[in-house]
Design brief:
28% strand; 6-stranded mixed sheet
Length: 410
């Protein structure tokens, strides 16, 4: 599918969404530019920028003054070995600089020879090769107008930095303490997620996560930790770090998908696919702080191969527990709401499911591209039913999981 937005303000921050057949985050750690399909050119008095990428990524765009510059941030693009001057064929731009930025972001800065305003900017996705293309058009303006509209956007500050001082590993729960559940409302801040009819996935999932937190806390059987409790951007790696810091027994990521075509509706529960596990291990070793890969194991001096083997060993225990978790969540949602997708149990390579020693599931509560699902997601009554269904599933899973843990200890 294609996402393309006209803008009148200098900020965009979109995470593309895909059809259900492609509904998994690309496991590639970094996007890479394709300079042969990219260009920075003039069209009369306008500037046109086309940047082809190997995969979609969250991004934002804005202008800065003194001197006039266009800034595009990505999470994350590997600029290594790329000579951006090869695509620069514009009298409006004197220089292109690329490199790493803060908190797993990377940046591209175009130095403008004259003041220019953003007219349109969009990320085109859904290409056959899995890639994406950023298209930007700018028009000449006067210095005063440019200065008035320039400046870093409010959402440009990345929230929730990685959590230091990781705790000692927590023993597998046996029912003698509250179950620690990390709730992860998808997207947030500069990454709003899917959008339809004025509804934003990040907002809907935060509202539901807060409802679910209240339902779980009311039982006295759970201790709930949130990866975010406000509209802030939290990098995918940081979400897993939050779970590790909390000593999580369970990690639940909450989303609401969207489709360009079709009439899909209902809830779906994902776990990490077998095919994705090896790649997930490799990328965790590549991207994460070594102290944050496995609880209680120091991997600082181990190479990627050894780290990957240890994580795969951890998954031998975690994967069947996560599968049972997903099954009980589906059963709980079915009993309380009855609103399930025709394929309620799926497996994919979502980044937030990569923690090798924490049973994790991603719940797509519905499709905000579906009018029926939009009504449900906005209904307090339906949200309460869905929250109770998830609660029921967690209670059932915790009891069975604790019973198994006790048997293993004997």
């Amino acid at each position: 599918m294609t996402i393309y937005r006209s803008i009148t303000v200098a900020l965009m921050g979109l995470l593309p969404f895909a059809p259900i057949a492609q509904a998994q985050e690309t496991l590639g750690a970094l996007a890479r530019p394709d300079l042969e399909a990219s260009s920075i050119t003039d069209m009369g008095g306008s500037l046109r920028i086309t940047l082809a990428l190997s995969q979609p990524v969250p991004w934002r765009i804005f202008t800065l003054d003194a001197p006039p510059r266009l800034v595009v941030d990505f999470s994350k693009v590997d600029w290594g070995g790329q000579d951006m001057s090869l695509i620069l064929r514009s009298d409006h731009v004197s220089d292109v600089i690329t490199g790493p930025f803060l908190n797993d972001w990377s940046r591209m800065v175009l130095t403008l020879n004259r003041p220019m305003l953003l007219e349109t900017a969009g990320l085109l996705t859904g290409q056959d090769n899995g890639g994406a293309t950023l298209k930007v058009q700018m028009a000449r303006t006067d210095a005063e107008t440019f200065a008035d509209q320039a400046g870093a956007p409010d959402g440009a500050i990345v929230g929730a930095a990685p959590v230091p001082n990781l705790p000692e590993p927590r023993a597998r729960q046996t029912g003698d303490r509250p179950l620690i559940v990390v709730l992860d409302p998808g997207h947030g801040g500069i990454d709003p997620g899917a959008e339809a009819e004025g509804l934003i996935e990040a907002d809907l999932m935060l509202r539901f996560a807060l409802d679910l937190r209240d339902v779980l806390n009311a039982t006295g059987r759970f201790q709930v930790v949130m990866t975010r409790d406000a509209d802030v951007f939290v990098p995918l790696e940081t979400r897993v770090s939050v779970a590790r810091q909390a000593g999580a027994d369970v990690f639940l990521s909450l989303h609401a998908d969207a489709l360009a075509e079709g009439r899909a509706s209902g809830s779906t529960v994902y776990t990490l696919s077998v095919e994705a596990s090896d790649e997930a291990s490799r990328l965790l070793a590549e991207r994460h702080d070594r102290a944050d890969l496995l609880a209680g194991i120091d991997l600082a001096d181990q190479d990627d191969v050894i780290a990957g083997v240890l994580m795969d060993m951890a998954r031998l225990n975690t994967t069947p527990r996560a599968e049972r978790l997903a099954q009980t969540l589906v059963a709980g949602l079915a009993e309380r709401t009855g609103d399930l997708h025709k394929r309620p149990r799926l497996r994919a390579g979502f980044s937030v499911l990569k923690a090798p020693d924490i049973p994790s599931a991603l719940i797509e509560l519905g499709f905000i591209s579906s009018e029926r699902d939009r009504r449900r997601l906005q209904s307090e009554t339906w949200r309460q039913k869905a929250a109770m269904g998830i609660r029921d599933g967690l209670v059932r899973w915790a009891e069975d999981d604790a019973a198994e843990a006790k048997l293993l200890r004997q």
